[in-house]
Amino acid sequence: MGEIITSGASIVLPFREGIDINKDRIMENNLLSRLNSPKFSHRKRNFAYEMLGEMLVNDLGLYFHSVDVMNLGGKIAKVFGLNERETLFEYVTHDVGKTGVWSLLGNHDKYTDIEFERSKVHPVIGYEILKKEGFNSAANMALEHHMHQPNSYPKSEKGDPGWESGLLSLADFYSATFRNDGKKFDLSGKALMKSERPGLVNEIDALYDKGIFIETV
Ligand SMILES: [Fe+2]
Ligand SMILES: [Fe+2]
What we know:
There is one protein chain. The protein is mainly α. It has a single domain, classed as Hypothetical protein af1432. It contains ten helices and two strands. It is globular. Bound molecules: fe (ii) ion (FE2) (2 copies). The site of one fe (ii) ion has 5 residues, from helix 8.
């Protein structure tokens, strides 16, 4: 178990250390309640289930990460007044492009440098997969979710990415950097996010102040 400190409050949170049965169950329940909500259309639910099933078999870390980002998306949607149904779907599918390149990637938490370089095709592949299904906003979010950082990819052809994908990028970064590594997210975590995401300083403050970066169980 780990501890997360947020402006005065201290909350205990089970960090992922290998496969944690409790976390697995919590995630699973969370996932099912979200995906079974009538807010999800049949097609989107089936698509998400199929994608997560593939992740579960091929890359457990990616499965947890996708569910984690989706749950953060639910909170972000409330704070920013976004369409919850769309946001949940966009967030859970943001890394769907990785399902198209399993053979290029290793099944472990941290990619090697070569694997990381290879993984950079996943936003474009994700865009194509989602676009083909007609899930246009999710396709754009998948395409842009790594554009909000100093070494962004892929290079944008139509200028700056939107703020919506900036919020997804924060949830993605937070999940990948703090949750799965079992690090604390405190003021130094906030500073790290600000240095990694210089264009999203106000959003980081807003999410931090609203307690988005806190998980209670
Ligand atoms: Fe990604
Ligand atoms: Fe991700």
